[in-house]
User: What shape does this take?
Amino acid sequence: MTTQDPGKLMAKADKLTKLSFTRWNADWKNATALYEQAAVGYRFKKENEKAKEAFEKASKGQEMISSPWDAAKHMESAASLAKELGHWNEVSDFYRKASELYRECGRSQPASDALGKGASALEDTNPDEAVRLYIDACEILEEDGKEQMAFDLYRAATSTYVKLERYTDAATLLLRWGVAADKCNAVNSQCKAYLSAIIIYLYMHDFQQAQKCYNDCSQVGAFLSSDQGRCARKLLSAYEEGDIEEIKRLAQPSPITHLDHVIIKLARKLPTGDLKELEKEEDKETLDENDLT
Amino acid sequence: MSVIDILTRVDAICKKYEKYDVERLNGDNVAGDDAFARLYASVDLDVESALQKAETASQEKNRAAVVALNAEIRRTKARLLEEVPKLQRLALKKNIAFCEIFLYQVKGLSKEELSTRNDLVLALPDRIQSIPDGSTNGAKATGSWTASASRTEIRFDSTSDGRFESEYFQQTEESNQFRQEYEMRKMKQDQGLDIISEGLDTLQNMAHDMNEELDRQVPLMDEIDSKVDKATSDLKNTNVRLKETVNQLRSSRNFCIDIILLCIILGIAAYLYNVLKK
Assistant: This one.
């Protein structure tokens, strides 16, 4: 059977599934088996296009005989072949479909894995879609209460955002990461996420935002008393004083070097822009404070 | 027997037979009759003990112990210096009170002996002053000061403060070097400590990450555990059923009949093959 030409197998399977005058019910079971064999045969022969189609049809067949797990597996294979072929929109579609099928099985981890794989495949070519996939993956896990697994996804998504230079989104995502870490008592990761967010705000030269962020995060007791919190405090006070040397010095030692390397690169570039501007803005602030009316 | 054993045994024997040591007793007795010699011997003994204490003080690491030892030494020195005039008087006296029996010993306090005694007594203050007590630093002109200082004065710093100025420059040469060395060593220690602290920070970060990773894996392990339990129970089930089936097969005679039939068929096939080959 395996030596049979995959083309022939495909033709046979198509015949089985096509409803015609003589055939009232499509025989999906046999058809699926044939489709699978054909797909494997094509993949072996490296005819990716045909293999992909075969996998698609096999997956559909599995759906019809209501075994979503196998269907999802075939979808994933189809998606990886599409990736090799470079059909990027197909890649995302297939992975999403696979993820849905996994969710039907009630297995959230493989679902988010599928989305994660899709996102990493699309990182270079279609980063927006990639980020969307990452976020969806994180949501799936959070729904299921498995935030721990989401950390890697958050990390990848943040690095993609930074590459896209969408820093506000990156910072928001980091704060979400902090929330997820909080739920599973991962204090270290939480503090690191908050510190990274503050650094991103400072990199964007948005000192007020950074201050606000720091104040918000200080509500969390763990952050306040942690190394990362201390580093953030020192960084912000160095910014207030406009002390460039201090900022550069602070970017060297440990709490920052333990963060993600993308953030470290940002921190090394730190002080961006003119610190004098910050001082001017602050003067306005102090005037407001003195104004008691 | 090792050397240590021999030494301990010799010590024990000596101690046991100490009371028969005529020479020593005689020595004690001799000193005992002569007041000067007695006093001198006791002063000598005190000087020796003070020197020993100074040795230990110089090797002692604990500052408080050093200070205490130095204070003791100073007290001893003060006391001994008080004894010195007494000795001087005794040296000049011809002690003939006890010379009736040991006439030859004391009466003949010859001129030489007298002079030696004088010299000894004169040398004594110097010896006493030269005992290091933590505040002297090669000071020489001790005699004049101690003579003028009154005996009832509480000597806080027995080498007195007046001389401090003259010694000042001497001290700072050495102490400058010392201070430099101290600063350099301190810097090196600080550098080393910085490196250690960096390493510890990295270790702490890694430990935290490992902690979180392990926390992450705990529910996974629980899942694996339950799934594997289920799989093992399924397997056990299947095994039992399989065992029953195989037993059934074996118990009936089907098995033997199968083998016999198989042999017959093989025989027929072999026969046919032979026939066809021909």
